Structure prediction request, 185 residues.
Amino acid sequence: MGTGGWIFLGLIVLLVLWIVATYNGLVSGRNQVKNAWAQIDVQLKRRHDLIPNLVEVVKDAMGYEQETLKEVIAARNKAVSAIGPVDVAAAENALTAATAKLFALTEAYPNLKANESIMALQEELTATENKIAFSRQFYNDSVMKYNNAVGAFPGVLIARQFGFSEVAFFEAPEAERQVPRVKLR
Prediction:
């Protein structure tokens, strides 16, 4: 084989190595996104488990606020059954709004404000909310990195050939993106 043959063979080997490295990078990115989603899922399950306990503790004391408790349970049930980042994000944001309303109402009941069980559940829920926020940020960072690898040239050529596609971000709804207006006289 002549020099031209060796150069051609070398180029083919380099091309195959590049394809393998790009494919492995895409697999690694996809697995990191799956892992990040699993971390969100763990924290959401914890949150879903805490909410019924909180509702149970406050329901007797909040006899006149049964509608709020029903909203919280309905939002929780919808969040538990949601599938995929887009649906889960919407359901979880509705659950956050419902639990925030519940916390605001507990402030109106002095016996609930002093209840140690409620205080402990609120602290656990707050800690879980913080973990969800960190997990959500890690997930979105992983998605961005993966989507960049899937969509950028020349990796997009490999991604298309092997069925890699972009993944949805875990986004806040439009209402949460708007800056609240403060009106001072």
